[in-house]
Amino acid sequence: MSAGCVIGVDLGGTKLLAGVVDADLNVHHRVFRHAREGRSGDELLDVIVAAVDEAREAAGGEVRAVGLGVPSLVDPATGVANTTVHLPLRDVPLRDVMAERLGLPVAVDNDANAAMVAELRAGAARGASCAALLTLGTGIGGGMVVDGAVVRGAHGGAGEWGHMVIAADGPLCTCGNRGCLEMLVSGSALGRAAAEAAASLPDSGFGRALEAGTAITGMLVTELAHDGDPVARDVVARMGHYLGVGIANVVNILNPSVVVVGGGVIAAGEMLLAPARRVVAERALAPSRDQVEIRATRFGDASGMIGAAILAQDLAASR
Amino acid sequence: MSAGCVIGVDLGGTKLLAGVVDADLNVHHRVFRHAREGRSGDELLDVIVAAVDEAREAAGGEVRAVGLGVPSLVDPATGVANTTVHLPLRDVPLRDVMAERLGLPVAVDNDANAAMVAELRAGAARGASCAALLTLGTGIGGGMVVDGAVVRGAHGGAGEWGHMVIAADGPLCTCGNRGCLEMLVSGSALGRAAAEAAASLPDSGFGRALEAGTAITGMLVTELAHDGDPVARDVVARMGHYLGVGIANVVNILNPSVVVVGGGVIAAGEMLLAPARRVVAERALAPSRDQVEIRATRFGDASGMIGAAILAQDLAASR
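^ Those are the sequences you sent over. The predicted structure of the assembly is below.
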């Protein structure tokens, strides 16, 4: 293995992915962990340290630095995770704590900003001057690129497309707002919409799944939709519609040349993206709507991990 | 008068303001014109030329350049006004046409981008690295600043906060989308909301105005609200609420240090801004919501004209 490896870690709302990544962005070893809701902040830090230790052992040679993407607003100046909607991390000085525990240089960023970095440097948004990213998982992570650089905002809080309200009097979001995009478009939203369909249509694929005691998750919906289940397809298409409303907003706000869609829900592929593209073509302002491409992530679920590794490489190169 | 004057022109949805502006941003002469809906594109160009000619004559000395802000998506590379929601300008090569007719260098930009430039260089957002602006007039104009520069997007279409949907299944907007912020928050929206109130409350200030044949405009609502009319105050406060929903989105998307609110509707002042600030404090993500100041424009209705003059100064300095 090359001597220039780093470890990238993507801490999602429900799971963790770590990887040993070389200078060419090849991934040599992957580590998965569950990051269940309800865990304490200290336990979460233990999970991260254990995953990095496993990756480090697998790496064999020297590891130059660790990059960590977390589903939090992260202040880039201090590496403090300020606010985390889906995990018990609040005002945690993650960069300094992890650097001390690991004995390695640590870069910390918002998980979706990390994914945006990966897609911008080497993925679906490569070479774009102006771009956006939405990762559809437990919630929605968001990233934004202006003049070829990821936008952090005044204190690292920029790019939260998931907490853009598209239904002002809509359902209460976990963040305290109402009608946020992620209440209508995310893995959790997919599961909720399907559970509602299951309750009202006991003879549907969902109804049978519910009766058999199977949890109705976003992943199950996507599987059933791929199998041709009409109710599942309807649920995914409806989510694609609202994704389109959200992306039309992104287009009107940013006029990007590319919008990258990732996260677990992108497993639905064109069943999700085709209706979203239709809504953008109908609703966003011309000519911006004709100047944008809507693409799936190149790195799939690994965008955040690979982006975190790139941040670690940048950090190691700067020292 | 100093020799270094330029002319700034702000073409709004219903009116035009031109001014002779010196290097210290002092305005030496102002020209007003109506730009009524329904006029043809050619007639609009005549109105602009006549206004500039009047300003030029008043300037006495040499005019170095003309800056023109228009309520359109403008491609900064070509100076073409691509799409205009409230005026008959579409795919007009404004920069070249006006330069030829005036015999002067001409800079063209979106009117709200021009206002953003004025507030950033010398106004309410002075010195901000990351900021946004919403001008509430016939519609909503929007501007966005990242790393101290106005964001144009891939082709000049960025910053259209007014066409950010906040009510996905809401009323049809003039742009073809549904539930855009400007359908709920603008001078037109204020007039519409008050006309509804007038119809249902004939004994209110509006009801009496309606009976007397007075047109219920945003300006009348603001005047009645300043006079203490409870229905007018309710209408303004409700608009302030939705303005807050929109600004909370801006805060979550951009994490700006300042959001500047301008346009005719800002005449309502704190009656509009106080409820907006409350919604942002309740609904936007922490800590971004605590890091943002929501301020009225420094230059009031003249932000766009002064910003256009600054663009003209920049153009003259670059030649």
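Chain A touches chain B through 55 residues (CB under 8 Å). The CA atoms of residues 29 and 58 of chain A lie 7 Å apart.

Shout if you want it in another format.
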